[in-house]
């Protein structure tokens, strides 16, 4: 495509005069070991100083993030190939002449907290509207939305449950009676499938198989007992290549009835992170965002966190964490008889894999899909990339002393757009 080539980012850094490489940047970040040093420092520092991979930024930097974003021309046709449309012209050697500067500018956008500047975060835990005779009632809408993959690309015409992509996250308990009423505000028919749940057949959500399509303006009520424990999903099962690809997807988490079997008690996790990937509209995304607008994961040394990988796309994605292994404990909600360690975990379409990570080594650890065309190219990292930022004990304790909240790291992560939430079960009624 003959779109305008990306220029070097017009940030406060004089990027054209620095030869700072991403590798050097990452090495510097690893040595820094995290800490709540504002990334605004990076935005204002002389070009000779490598910005630290620290997180989150100061509030002022959050707003500066989009303002300092590189002037990459928005794609007129967002999609998995839109990255290529932005690529700078290759030099005679086949490499873009200004790769380092462009790549650094993208990293700076991530450090500046670009994801937190965007409205419409998904995966927000959903609270029942009411409890009716012991049934948890959820009132849902299916809407056309304008969704931003990042702060630079133009918003795209997408779909969302309750106005977000991903939709809000159901957090229910094994044995709960669920009534989910979906109102279709689209101008097309749809249906909702609770992927992984064992439900009565008529509640399976497959239009023309188990129910009539939900026509525009109509509602359909799904009611069942949440009896399949673990990490599950809900999504469109009607014109699904298109509708799921445009954002009709979300997480459906069923906590074990026995509190001792939940991840906070069983593994001591302090963050329980839902990570839904997609690879259609908007390109390669994690929870509806592409790097650098993906949410970082911020923890401190000694923390244990859980990540629930969910693949709503049409390709496999091997998730690779630098620095530490992941302990794989469940597939599709079912506990593994023999959990195993790995650093790269392929997640096929439709699968859910739960992993536990012991945050032992401070630093900023890249965390990305290892199909490299999904993550890094001529103009730096993009798409399925984020970072696990592990703060060392001194930085964490300094943060505790400075912040007025009891759990500043998780609070900061949430404010910075992290999709991590404490393991909890909403108490209603
Ligand atoms: Cu991938």
Describe what this molecule looks like in 3D.
By secondary structure, the protein is an alpha+beta fold. The chain has a domain at 125-259: Cupredoxins -  blue copper proteins (Immunoglobulin-like), CATH 2.60.40.420. It is built from nine helices and 24 strands. Strands 11, 12, 14, 16, 17, 19 and 24 form a seven-stranded mixed sheet that branches. The protein has a five-stranded mixed sheet with strand order 1-5-10-9-7. The radius of gyration is 21 Å and the shape is globular. Mean pLDDT is 78; it is low at 1-51, 58-92, 396-410 and 419-429. The structure holds copper (II) ion. The site of copper (II) ion has 6 residues, from loops. Copper (II) ion (CU) is lined by residues 284, 317, 369, 371, 374, 384.
Task: Summarize the entry for a quick read.
The protein is built from 9 helices and 24 strands. By secondary structure, the protein is α+β, with helices and mostly antiparallel strands.
Short key terms for the protein model shown above:
single chain, 429 residues, alpha+beta, Immunoglobulin-like, five-stranded mixed beta sheet, 9 helices, 24 strands, binds copper (II) ion
């Amino acid at each position: 495509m003959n779109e305008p080539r990306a220029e070097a980012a017009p940030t406060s850094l004089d990027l054209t005069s620095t030869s700072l490489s991403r590798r050097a940047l990452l090495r510097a970040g690893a040595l820094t070991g995290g800490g709540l040093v504002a990334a605004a420092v990076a935005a204002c520092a002389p070009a000779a100083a490598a910005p630290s991979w620290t997180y989150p930024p100061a509030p002022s930097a959050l707003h500066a993030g989009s303002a300092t974003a590189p002037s990459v021309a928005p794609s007129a046709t967002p999609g998995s190939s839109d990255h290529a449309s932005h690529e700078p012209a290759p030099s005679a050697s086949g490499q873009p002449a200004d790769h380092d500067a462009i790549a650094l500018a993208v990293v700076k956008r991530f450090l500046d907290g670009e994801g937190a500047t965007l409205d419409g975060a998904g995966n927000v835990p959903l609270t029942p509207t009411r409890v009716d005779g012991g049934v948890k009632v959820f009132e849902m809408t299916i809407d056309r939305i304008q969704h931003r993959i990042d702060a630079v690309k133009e918003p795209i015409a997408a779909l969302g449950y309750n106005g977000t992509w991903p939709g809000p996250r159901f957090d229910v308990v094994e044995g709960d009676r669920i009534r989910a009423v979906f109102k279709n505000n689209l101008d097309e028919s749809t249906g909702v499938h609770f992927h992984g749940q064992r439900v009565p057949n008529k509640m399976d959500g497959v239009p023309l198989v188990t129910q009539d399509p939900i026509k525009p303006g109509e509602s359909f009520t799904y009611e069942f007992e949440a009896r399949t424990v673990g990490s599950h999903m809900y999504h469109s099962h009607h014109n699904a290549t298109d509708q799921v690809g445009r954002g009709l997807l979300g997480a459906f988490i069923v906590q074990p009835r026995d509190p001792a079997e939940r991840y906070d008690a069983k593994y001591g996790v302090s963050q329980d992170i839902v990570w839904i990937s997609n690879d259609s509209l908007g390109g390669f995304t994690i929870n509806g965002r592409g790097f650098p607008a993906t949410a970082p994961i911020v923890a401190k040394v000694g923390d244990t966190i859980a990540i629930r990988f969910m693949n709503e796309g049409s390709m496999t994605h091997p998730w690779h964490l630098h620095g530490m292994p992941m302990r794989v404990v469940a597939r599709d909600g079912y506990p593994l008889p023999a959990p195993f360690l790995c650093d790269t975990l392929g997640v096929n379409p439709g699968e859910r894999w739960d992993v536990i990570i012991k945050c032992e080594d401070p630093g900023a650890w890249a965390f990305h899909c290892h199909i490299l065309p999904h993550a890094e190219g001529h103009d730096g990292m993009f798409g399925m990339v984020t970072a696990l930022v592990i703060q060392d004990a001194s930085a964490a304790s300094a943060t505790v002393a400075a912040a007025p909240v009891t759990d500043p790291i998780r609070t900061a992560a949430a404010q910075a757009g992290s999709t991590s939430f404490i393991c909890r079960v909403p108490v209603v009624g």
